[in-house]
Structure formats: structure tokens, C-alpha cells
Amino acid sequence: MSKFVVAIFPDETKAYEGTRALKELHAEGSITVYGIAVIAKDASGKISVKQAADAGPLGTAVGALVGTLVGLLGGPVGAVVGYGSGALVGVLSDVYNAGVSTDFVNSVSEKLTPGKTAVAAEVTEDWVTPLDSRMEAIGGTVIREQRSDFEDDQIDKEVKARKADVARLKAEFAQATDDRKAKLKAQIAEAQAKLSAAAGRAKSRMTQLQQEGQAKLKELQNQAASAKRDTKAKIDQHIAEAKADYARRSDKLKQAWESTKEALAA
């Protein structure tokens, strides 16, 4: 399973040394790097993107992470409580959909003080020492977080909840008096529309996951092709793990999507 890493540096020059070090570690086979971005906080506390992640599938996750960080790093996540429950729900949704926790975002916020620059990346690694040692040598501090598949779980839960709503309303409609059926019919139509929208999100996520999974496998395979024997064995293991992770997540979304088709057709 991949991780997000954010390395905090004292200035922009050191941060770009950090990006070069990440690429060198990838070339050596010590880690696999899927996407890199650079963000900075100026003296006034304003966050800006200095280097965006690649636009292709490999950069999707880091792009989502950077978007979340840029939107939140004016202060700790907990500060949004003062904005009202609606703002808090929106913020937490952005954080979880990016595949990280609020603790991770707060750790980055605490360390990315005005004047500092951060390198954000998605990586696979066996040991933390190669990356930590290289970043520390150029003045960087590394913060890590396992990337979660919270968004997939949420889609699965939403589909199940929407299906249950449709089923309950249809069961009630079957036993309702004539004067209630018109209102229930409208509620069923609304519930079915929400279920259809959830099905669309599941299908869209399946496509995104497929594109990202294929791009990651290709990156790992390219890395393995030029690796030394011992390193190649580790990368081959990562390939097997990536395939298994993709299959697990894809199956969950596929089942969710197919179950919506059955419910809407009934």
C-alpha cells in the first residue's frame, strides 16, 4: 500500500534539492515515487503551489492531497469548528477523500511555518531510513501517512444506504392507502435518483481506480526492469501487493455499482 510523505524544508532551494533526492531514490530502487508536488508558505502565511503534480493518473492522488493542504494550511483543521458544522463537515470530507487523517494535516500545518516549503509525494517504501536520511541531510523533516481508501468505503456505504431507502419506500408503497401513494411515489422517484447518482460515482471511481492502478503497475514494472537482483525482488513484491490491492478495491466498487443496477431495474 502506498504512503503520502510531506518533507518540510527551510526554503524553496532546499525543497527542490528534496525533489531531486526523491527521484534519485526512485532510480536506485530504494523507494517508488508516483507523484511529486511542491508547496510553500510565504511570510504572511499564504500557501501557494510552486510545482503541481503531473496531470496524469500518477499525479491524481498527490494533486488531491495538495488541494486539501492548500485549502487548510491557514491553521489547524480543528480551527474550522468555529466556522459552523457545515464548514467542518466539508473540511473533513475533503481530508478523508484525499486519503489522509486530520492528525496528518495538523502535523503538516504545525511544521510548515511561514517561510518554509514542502515537498509532497506518494511513494511505496520498505524502510523509512533511506528517505529520512536523504531528506535530513538537506535539512528536511518527513511526515508520513498511509494512504487510505476511505472514498471507496464511503461510496460503498452510500450505495447500500440508498438501496435500503428505495426498498423501504417500495415496501411502504405496496401497503399504503390510495391517498398516500402519490406522495410515496414521488419519494420513491427521489430516492431512485439519489441511488442513480451514487451509482454514477461508483462507476466514475472504478474508472479512476483502473487508470491509476495501471499507471502505478507500469511505473513499478519499469523500475523493476532496470533494478539489481535484490532490489528487483522487493519491487516484484510491491507489484504483487499493488495488484491485490487494486483487485480488492475494484471488486468492492464493482459490486456496489452492479447492485444499484439491480435495485433500479426492480
Task: Describe what you observe in this structure.
The protein is of the alpha+beta class and 266 residues long. The protein has two domains: 3-148, no CATH class; 151-265, no CATH class. 65% of the residues lie in helices and 14% in strands. The protein has eight helices and five strands, in the order βαββαααβαβααα. It has a five-stranded antiparallel sheet with strand order 3-2-4-1-5, with helices on both faces. Helix 2 runs antiparallel to helix 3, helix 6 (150-175) runs antiparallel to helix 7 (178-225) and helix 6 (150-175) runs parallel beside helix 8 (229-265). The longest helix is centred in the last third of the chain and has 48 residues, at 178-225.
